[in-house]
Specification:
about 190 residues; alpha+beta; 11 strands; globular
Length: about 190
């Protein structure tokens, strides 16, 4: 008690509390195998049950599972296990679809499970370790949760698609828009 009384710390001002709240960030945490990953919550539109029917597109990369109709919008679906060269999931019932948007694209990401929306202080995010190849582009940082012994790889949503894959989605979206316009012109 005497140490507490001697402390020259004063209670946090409203400005300090406001500033630290502004620095708190939110992430959607998901699993692939035994690993945990995070995406900034502001790029996530929704989380849904993974679709059971996906229309496969011919001559597309293996990571592109296909397309689905999500409330009238044709949405490309990317299987993150395939994207990260992991074996196929065994528990298909737990899989989730995370709908993300970047500046030009919207896509669905199939993951094993979604566990939480994590609130984290900005200072808990560490720089990405020196990685090689594609991992260097994908991993934006590491969220180190020392209290729980967890480390989450923070993924860069823009980099989840390579340049080639983004061009493929651009072409796909242009075709879908042309098809929609043609269908509307007939009515």
């Amino acid at each position: 008690m005497s140490r507490l009384e001697q402390s020259d710390e004063t209670p946090a001002s409203a400005e300090t509390v406001e500033r630290s709240a502004a620095q708190a960030l939110q992430f959607l945490v998901f699993q692939l195998g035994g690993d945990e990953f995070a995406l900034p919550i502001d790029v996530v539109d929704e989380v849904a049950q993974a679709p059971t029917r996906i229309t496969r597109l011919p001559k597309t990369p293996a990571f592109l599972e296909g397309v689905i109709n999500l409330r009238g919008e044709v949405l490309p679906v990317v299987d993150q296990r395939r994207r990260f060269d992991m074996p196929a999931a065994t528990d298909l019932g737990a899989r989730r679809l995370i709908v993300v948007r970047t500046e030009r694209h919207r896509a669905g990401l199939i993951v094993d499970a979604v566990s939480e929306v994590l609130h984290s202080a900005a200072d808990a995010i560490e720089s990405a370790p020196d990685l090689t190849g594609e991992a260097n582009r994908l991993v934006q940082g590491v969220i180190n949760l020392e209290a729980t012994g967890r480390m989450l790889l923070l993924l860069d949503p823009v980099e989840l698609l390579t340049r080639t894959e983004r061009k493929l989605l651009d072409a796909f979206q242009a075709r879908a828009a042309a098809t929609n316009e043609a269908g509307q012109a007939k009515t």
